[in-house]
C-alpha cells in the first residue's frame, strides 16, 4: 500500500470509491476459477470517463500500473492483479449507462460497466437484438466482452464481439481520451485502431464505451438435435444447413457422447429426445429476422436428405420455445455437469473447421495413452472451429492425482493444435494464464510484433502488465 | 538511379524483372486519375514471397524504401512512389496463384497479385461466392483490395474486405515473413494483427497472400428501383427491407436526380423504368443462398407497404437477370457519365446512416452558395453510410475555372463531415492524397497513435513512406 497514491486516487473519485483492504475488497480480488490469488495496492471505482482519465494521470505520476476490471468473470486471469505494490485495479462497474440507441443507424452506445444482459434488454426495448450470447450475461460486463473479444454461442452467424464494434472511447496510458464513438460502417482514414483495442485485454488502453451494431430480432427459429455418423458428418451437415438456410445457422454445437452423458446424469432436465445413441451429436440453432414459415421446413428437408445419405442416424427438430429450450439444455448443462464430475483440464482451442475431424481422431488415442480412463468431455462451437477440449479425470482417480497430469496434457493438446496451425486461446483470451504458452508456441516474429505494438501504445508498461505479452 | 541497389535487386529476381526506365516502366509509374506523377528508382517484380523477403533485406541494406503495388487501380495515390532516389516500386503481379480452396472451411488462400476477378472465378468453380464486388474487378488485385480494405457495392451485407480475411502472409520491414495463413474464425491469442495490416496501405508490411472467407452463391435474388419521397424515406425503406429479408439487402444505393439524369443522358442503355420523377432514388439488391421463392415476394410486400405510407412514390422490382442488370446500369453508368460531363471534385465520405439526411440537407445550399449552378452528382452505398459526394462543374463553366474551387469545396465538405463525426476516407483509403487532410481533421491523440503504430512496425520508415501517416 502506498498512502500517497491512495490519497491521489481518492482526490479523483472520493474516498469511498477507493478500497484498500478488508471485506469490501474481496470480490475484486477473487478469481472465480481459483487459479490466481490477486493482489493490488488498491481498487478504484471511477464514475465516468473523466475520472478514468484522471486516474491514469495519477498512475503516471506515481508510476503505478492499472489493471482494468469490469465483471471479473474472465477465465484466464486477465483482471487478476498480481503486484500489491504497483498495481491498482480500476473497476468500471459504475460506468454502466446506455448512452444512446440510434435506431436509424441500428447501433447502441454502451459504457464498459454495463452488464451484457442490461445492454441486451436495452436493445430489445428499442426493437433490436444484441447478438452477443454468453452464459454469464447477467454478470459479465461490456468492458470485459470488448477486452477479451468475447465469443460465445452465436459467433457462427454474428461473429465475435469485435465484429459488433463500430466505435470506441478509450483512455490511453498517458491519460488522454480517444473519443472514436462514431458508429461508422466504413472508415479507411487510418489503421484499424478499434480492432486493435478490442481483444487487447486492457493492455493497450482502457475502453470506457463502445458503439455496438445491433441486429434485428429473429422472427423464425428452429433447433435441431442430431445423432451423427461421425465428426466429419457433423461438419458436412453444418455446412449444408448454412447454405440451405442462407447462412442462418446461428448456433452450431458439437457434443461428444461423454459430454452428453455427463449432462444427462447431472440434470433431470436433460433428456435425449430419441433412443438412438452415437459417439457425436450436433445441436443446430437456425434463426432469421424475416417473417414467414419456410425456415423450419428447409431445415427439416436438409436433415432428411442428410439422414438418407447417412450423415446422421437420428434427429429431432424443435419448433416451440419449450422444445428448443429443452434441446439447448443438453448443451448448456455440460459445463456445470463437468464441474460436478471432478477435476477437469480445459483447453479453449480453434482450428479450421475442415481440420476438426482429423484433430479429434488424432488426439483421442493419445489422451487415453497419457491417462487411461480419462474422460474427454468435448463440446463446443464447431461452426466456427472452436472446441472446448476439456478433459475430465477418470472416475476412479483423485482430483489431485489428475492435476499432476495438467502440464503434460496441456502440452499434448497445445502442441498438436499448434502443429495444425490452430489457436490455443480461441475465445477466452490469453490473460495471465497463457502468456508463457503463447511465447512457446508462436513464431518469434509474431511475439516481436505483439511487443512492439504494446510498447508503442503503453511505453511505460502501465496497462495491465503481465497480461497477453510481457515487455 | 542507384546502380548498386539495382544490381542487388537483380540478384534477387533476375535482371529482366527489374525495370529502371523506358517504355516498360510507364504503366507502373502511371496514376490513372492523373493526380500524381510517380517516380521511382526502380520497379522490381518478385515471383514469390521469398523473393519479396529478400527484396526487403536489400532495401534495408541500401536504406531504400519499398512502395508495394498490385493492380495500380487505387484512387488516392497509395502506390504512387514519389522519390526517385530512395523508393522502389515492388510490383506483386507475379504472385498470382490461388494456393488453396478449403471447401469444408469455406475459405480460399490467394496471393496478392491475383486479380479480384480471377479469385472470384476460382471461388465460383469450387461452388462458392467471393463477395468483394468492385467495378475494377478484372484489373484490381487482391493485394490492393487488402491494402485499402476495399469496400464496394455489397458491404451492407458482406462487410468490407477486412471482414473476409481469416489470415495473412506478410513480409515485414526487416525482411522476416509472418505466416499467419491459418483460416481461423476465432483466435484471441494476441492483438488483432490481421486487421491492423488490412487497410494499412503497405505502410506496415507487404501482404503477399490471404485466407479469405467465402460465401455461398445466391439462389434467390431481386432488384428494386424506387423513386423516394426524400432521403430520410430511403434510409427508412432500406432498414425495413433489411429487417423483412433477414438482413439480405446485399446492395443499397442512393442516387440523386442529377446523377440519374447524367447517366440517362450519357447512355442509351439507361432508362428509368417509370415516368415518375423524384429528387432521390434508391436501388436495392436482395439476395440469399437459401433456395425458395419467398424473397422477391417479401420484397414486393415491403415496397407496397412503404408506398402506402408515402415513403416511395413509384417503384419496380426486377426478378429476371436482364431486368436486374438494366436496373443496376442506372447506378453503374453514373461514374463514366460524370467523367464525360466535365471536371468533378470528389469526396469519399461516410456518416452514421441516421445522419445522412441531415448532412445532405445541410450541404446542398452551401454548395450552391459556393459555386452557383454546381451539379452535385451524389450517389453511393447508403446502406453502410458511404456516399460518393461528387460535385460536377456547372454546365457553363470551364473545367479549369471549376478546379480553382477544389480546395475550398474539399474544405467545405470535409469540415462538415468531421463536425458530424464522419470519415473523409470511407472506402478508398488515405494514400498520399489525404495525408494532410487527415492530420488537419483528426484529433492529435489519434494521429499520435497512428504514428506510434507505424514507428513500431516500420521503425526506419521503409514501407510506403508518405502514405497514410508521416513519421
Automatic annotation (TrEMBL), chains A, B:
<dbReference type="InterPro" id="IPR016164">
    <property type="entry name" value="FAD-linked_Oxase-like_C"/>
</dbReference>
<dbReference type="InterPro" id="IPR006094">
    <property type="entry name" value="Oxid_FAD_bind_N"/>
</dbReference>
<dbReference type="Pfam" id="PF02913">
    <property type="entry name" value="FAD-oxidase_C"/>
</dbReference>
<dbReference type="GO" id="GO:0071949">
    <property type="term" value="F:FAD binding"/>
</dbReference>
<comment type="similarity">
    <text>Belongs to the FAD-binding oxidoreductase/transferase type 4 family.</text>
</comment>
<dbReference type="Pfam" id="PF01565">
    <property type="entry name" value="FAD_binding_4"/>
</dbReference>
<feature type="domain" description="FAD-binding PCMH-type">
    <location>
        <begin position="36"/>
        <end position="217"/>
    </location>
</feature>
<dbReference type="InterPro" id="IPR016167">
    <property type="entry name" value="FAD-bd_PCMH_sub1"/>
</dbReference>
<dbReference type="GO" id="GO:0003824">
    <property type="term" value="F:catalytic activity"/>
</dbReference>
<keyword id="KW-0285">Flavoprotein</keyword>
<dbReference type="InterPro" id="IPR051264">
    <property type="entry name" value="FAD-oxidored/transferase_4"/>
</dbReference>
<dbReference type="InterPro" id="IPR016166">
    <property type="entry name" value="FAD-bd_PCMH"/>
</dbReference>
<dbReference type="InterPro" id="IPR004113">
    <property type="entry name" value="FAD-bd_oxidored_4_C"/>
</dbReference>
<dbReference type="GO" id="GO:0022904">
    <property type="term" value="P:respiratory electron transport chain"/>
</dbReference>
<keyword id="KW-0274">FAD</keyword>
<dbReference type="InterPro" id="IPR036318">
    <property type="entry name" value="FAD-bd_PCMH-like_sf"/>
</dbReference>
<dbReference type="InterPro" id="IPR016169">
    <property type="entry name" value="FAD-bd_PCMH_sub2"/>
</dbReference>
<protein>
    <submittedName>
        <fullName>FAD linked oxidase domain-containing protein</fullName>
    </submittedName>
</protein>
<dbReference type="InterPro" id="IPR016171">
    <property type="entry name" value="Vanillyl_alc_oxidase_C-sub2"/>
</dbReference>
Amino acid at each position: 500500500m502506498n498512502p500517497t497514491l491512495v490519497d491521489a486516487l481518492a482526490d479523483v473519485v472520493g474516498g469511498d470509491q477507493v478500497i484498500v483492504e478488508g471485506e469490501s475488497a474481496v470480490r475484486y480480488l477473487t478469481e472465480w476459477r481459483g487459479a490466481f490469488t490477486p493482489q493490488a495496492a488498491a481498487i478504484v471505482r471511477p464514475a465516468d470517463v473523466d475520472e478514468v482519465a484522471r486516474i491514469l494521470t495519477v498512475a503516471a505520476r506515481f508510476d503505478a500500473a492499472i489493471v482494468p476490471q469490469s465483471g471479473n468473470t474472465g477465465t484466464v486471469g486477465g483482471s487478476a492483479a498480481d503486484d500489491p505494490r504497483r498495481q491498482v485495479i480500476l473497476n468500471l462497474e459504475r460506468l454502466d449507462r446506455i448512452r444512446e440507441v440510434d435506431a436509424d443507424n441500428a447501433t447502441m452506445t454502451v459504457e464498459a460497466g454495463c452488464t451484457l444482459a442490461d445492454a441486451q434488454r436495452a436493445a430489445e426495448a428499442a426493437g433490436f437484438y444484441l447478438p452477443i450470447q454468453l452464459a454469464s450475461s447477467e454478470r459479465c460486463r461490456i468492458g470485459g466482452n470488448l477486452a477479451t473479444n468475447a465469443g460465445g454461442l452465436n459467433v457462427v452467424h454474428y461473429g465475435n464481439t469485435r465484429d459488433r464494434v463500430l466505435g470506441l472511447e478509450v483512455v490511453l496510458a498517458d491519460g488522454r481520451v480517444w473519443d472514436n464513438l462514431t458508429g461508422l460502417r466504413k472508415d479507411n482514414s487510418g489503421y484499424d485502431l478499434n480492432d486493435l483495442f478490442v481483444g487487447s485485454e486492457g493492455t493497450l488502453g482502457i475502453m470506457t464505451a463502445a458503439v455496438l451494431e445491433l441486429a434485428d430480432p429473429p422472427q423464425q427459429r428452429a433447433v435441431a438435435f442430431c445423432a451423427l455418423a461421425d465428426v466429419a458428418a457433423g461438419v458436412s451437415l453444418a455446412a449444408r444447413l448454412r447454405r440451405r438456410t442462407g447462412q442462418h445457422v446461428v448456433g452450431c454445437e458439437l457434443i461428444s457422447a461423454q459430454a452428453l452423458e455427463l449432462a444427462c446424469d447431472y440434470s433431470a432436465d436433460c433428456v435425449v429426445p430419441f433412443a438412438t445413441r452415437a459417439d457425436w451429436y450436433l445441436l443446430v440453432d437456425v434463426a432469421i429476422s424475416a417473417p414467414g414459415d419456410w425456415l423450419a421446413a428447409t431445415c427439416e428437408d436438409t436433415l432428411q436428405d442428410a439422414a438418407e445419405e447417412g450423415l446422421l442416424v437420428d434427429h429431432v427438430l424443435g419448433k416451440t420455445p419449450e422444445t428448443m429450450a429443452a434441446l439447448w439444455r443438453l448443451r448448456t448443462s455440460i459445463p456445470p455437469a463437468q464441474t460436478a464430475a471432478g477435476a477437469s483440464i480445459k483447453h479453449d482451442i480453434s482450428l479450421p473447421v475442415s481440420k476438426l475431424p482429423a484433430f479429434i481422431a488424432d488426439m483421442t488415442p493419445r489422451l487415453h495413452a497419457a491417462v487411461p480412463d480419462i474422460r474427454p468431455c468435448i463440446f463446443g462451437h464447431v461452426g466456427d472451429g472452436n472446441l472446448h477440449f476439456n478433459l475430465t479425470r477418470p472416475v476412479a482417480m483423485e482430483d489431485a492425482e489428475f492435476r499432476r497430469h495438467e502440464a503434460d496434457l496441456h502440452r499434448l493438446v497445445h502442441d498438436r493444435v499448434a502443429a495444425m496451425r490452430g489457436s490455443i486461446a480461441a475465445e477466452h483470451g490469453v490473460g495471465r494464464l497463457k502468456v508463457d504458452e503463447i511465447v512457446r508456441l508462436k513464431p518469434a516474429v509474431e511475439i516481436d510484433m505483439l511487443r512492439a505494438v504494446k510498447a508503442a501504445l503503453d511505453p511505460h508498461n502501465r496497462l495491465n502488465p503481465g497480461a497477453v505479452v510481457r515487455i
